[in-house]
Each structure stands twice: as C-alpha cells, then as structure tokens.
Amino acid sequence: MNGVSLHDLSAGQAASVAEVLRGLQSPQKELPCKLFYDEIGSQLFEQITTLDEYYPTRAELRIMRAAAADIAARLGPECLLIEYGSGSSIKTHILLDHLERPAGYVPIDISREQLEHAAATLARSYPALPILPVCADYTATAELPTALPPCTRRIAYYPGSTIGNFVPEDARRFLASIAEVSGRDGGLLIGVDLKKDPLMLHRAYNDALGVTAAFNLNILARLNREVGANFALDHFRHYAFYNPVFARVEMHLVSLTEQTVRVAHANIHFDRGESIWTEASYKYNPPEFAALAARAGWRVQQVWMDDRGLFSVHYLTVAGAA
Ligand code: AVJ
Question: How much distance in Å is there from the Cα of 280 to the middle of ligand 1?
Fold first, then answer.
C-alpha cells in the first residue's frame, strides 16, 4: 500500500450489539448514524453525492475550488492536516494541491476499505507527503494513536457538514475535543450546510432514484449481516423530512406493520407506524454556527460560501490564541 501503514482502532468495526440494543429498546427507537458506513453504505453515500438533488457535495467542492488559494494562505506553511471522516478524500486533493509544504496528512475514518483506498490514492498523488491513516470511530476517541510529525500548526479538517449529524450539545463537545487535539495554535476548517428552502432540503434527502432510501435501509441489512437480526426490509419505509422547529432533516425507518424482529438475543416489537430514528442533519446560519463554535472555544476567522448561498466553509482558530 505504497508504504502507508494504517492504525486500526475499529476492533473489526462490527456494529456494537450493546449500542444497537440500547437504541432499539428506548421509547423512541434509534440507531447511531455512524452505522450507515460499512463498505456497502459508504459506496451508497458516494452515489448520493453525485445525485442531482444532493447539492451539498457539489456546493462545497465549488467553494473549495474557488477559495483554495485563500484557504491555503490562512492555513499557512507546514501545517499538519487531520481529517475527521475522510471518506473518499476528494476535497482534500484540492486543499493539498494548494498548501505550502504540508507536514503530513492524518485521515480518520470508520470505514476501513474506504480509508485504505483513499490513503493509497493520495500516496500516489503526493509521494513525499507523510500519510498516517487511522481507522477509528472518531466520535468515541478524539485522541490520536500515532506520534504526529512536527509542524507549524495542526489543522483539523471536517468537511461534508458531518457536524450536522450531532445534536448541538454533542457538536459542541466534539468541537471542544478537536480544539484539544489541535492545541493552542491550532485551526479548524469545517464545512457547514446552511438553512434554506425546506423543499430543496426535502428533495436532497428524498431523491427520485431512491439511493437515499437504499442508504437508510442498508442499516437494517447490516444488522441482519452482522448481529444476526432478521429485519424484513420491505416492511420498513424510508421517511425523511425537514423539521424547521429544530432546523434539522430527520431520517427515519417507519414500520409498515405491527411486527416483532429478532436482533441478536432480543426481540424488538414494532407497532404499525412506529419509527427508528436513524439520522439528524442540522442546518445552521453562519452566526448560529459561530455561536456554537464559540461555546467550544473556537473563533471564526473567515467564512466562504457558494454563489447560491447553499453551503459554507468556516476557518476557525482557538479563541484566545495569538
Ligand atoms: C454528509 C454525512 C453529513 O447529513 O447530509 C446524506 C449524510 N444522509 N443523505 C448528511 C447523508 C442522507 C450526510 N452527511
């Protein structure tokens, strides 16, 4: 693998039975959205990013292309890039093409196959760049297992508006833990999806080809494969909508019948119409995100948006640092 060696903290990355059962046995059934990203789910997500209706990826790429030189100037020379949820690392290519003598790249992802593939691709494009991939659930462990190469400053990169998948209090906690890893001189480059026409949001999570539905339902297929569950996928409906009270898209899997499903050693009962909540995707206006980040010890230095105002990329530094 081009001399790239991977740190694996994922313990085989199987879904944790205890965490799954805790979610399915609570009054509002829920499953953690990180379970979407097994090999099949990561491929389905890559397909989502190419859909006509799913605007965020294209909007963020447009911002990154237009602002790359600006961003690189902000980040400065010899920075160490630490990417949370690196996925296919496409946006990272744009960044690395513009950074001045980057000290290294640390991609962190829960999907081992995708991480290996992305790290190998980057190693071919940037043969001199130290790449230190970490396979981990970064929501559970903020600490990095590797000795990091020396650098001018550590830059956390968190694209894709994945911060929106946390409820705001968890988002604050996660941003605060990133500040710990980055240190006093650290920076954070983060993609944040913006509030907008709710019908546009609705379409983005209800695409005509049904890829988002397949992505949502794959979580049940995964439980069938990995923890000995017997979900009948055609007895559940993908249901996604924008909730303006909470400024979030909610994705659910709604039971179409009264049914009992075996999950590991437990029986889970569903009433007709009962849902499993699988994902929240919060949307922020720039001042709202700045306020959230401030509560985590970050100060916004600059915000870039696409010309249609759909998406934003924020650069922040640790508040109180020089
Ligand atoms: C890009 C991971 C943040 O909330 O939009 C896409 C994933 N879920 N369609 C998002 C997702 C449904 C997603 N993230």
Answer: 9
